[in-house]
Amino acid sequence: MKSLKIWASVMSVALVLASCGGMSNTAKGSLIGTAAGGAAGTGVGALIGHLVGGSSGAKKGAIIGAAAGAAVGVTTGALIGHKMDKAAAAAKALENAKVESIEDSNGLPGVKVTFDNGILFTVGKSDLKAAAKTTLKQFANDVLNTNTDIDVAICGFASSDGSEDTNLKISQNRADAVKNYLTGTCKVAGKQVKSSTGYGENPEFLVKKADGSEDVEASRRVEVYLLASDEMIKEAEAQAKK
Description:
Layout (H helix, E strand, L loop, with lengths): L1 H13 L10 H5 L2 H4 L2 H30 L3 H21 L5 E7 L5 E8 H4 L9 H15 L5 E8 L6 H20 L9 E6 L17 H4 L1 E8 L1 H11 L2
Parallel strand pairs: 3-4
Antiparallel strand pairs: 1-2, 2-5, 3-5
Helix pairs in contact: 5-7, 5-10
C-alpha cells in the first residue's frame, strides 16, 4: 500500500487536473504565460512529461515549462488548445463517455475521457464487452487515429469493494485491455499510448457522493488522458514564432 500511495501522490501532480469552467482549451491555452514559467515550470513540466512519455516526455515537459511566461509560450498554448478543442468535440460524440477539457500543472490544455467500468466490463471481469468495443473503435477512428500527434495515458480505477490486491490487479488488467484493444484491433500506434496504469482502490481517487459516502459505480472507471506530444508542441512553437 505504501508504494501505491507514493505513486498516487506523484499522479496527483501529473494527472489530477483542473478544468476552468466553460472556458475552451484554446482560451485556456493562451493562459500558459501566467499559469507557470521559468525554472519552476521546467521542473514540474519535466515530471509530468516523464510520467507520460519517459525521457522523451521529460524533454517535452521541460520545453513547455521553459516556454511558459513568454509570448511564444502563450501563442503555443493557444494553438495546442485549439487542437485539443477539436479532439474533445469529436470525443463528445461517443456514447457513455464523459469528456472534460483539462489542463496540467503548467497550464497546457488537454482532454480527459472517462469510461464507466459498467459500460466497458462485466463486474469482476477485465474482458471488454461488445458495446465497449464499438465505442472504443469509434474513439480510435474519430479521435486518436485522426490526431496522431496526441499522446495518450490510460488509467484504471476500482471501488473500495473487495481486497486491495484484487482491485489493483483488475484495475491494471482493465487499463491494459483498453490499451491492447486500441493498439491492436483499432490500429492506434503503440508509440502513441504512453502508459496504461491501474490504481486500484486508492482513496485519493475514489469518487464521493455529496454526503461523503463513496459512489461505488463512479469509482469503477477507466480514464483516458489526451496530452500534447513533442511533435504537437514543436509544431505549435514553430507556428508561434512566425
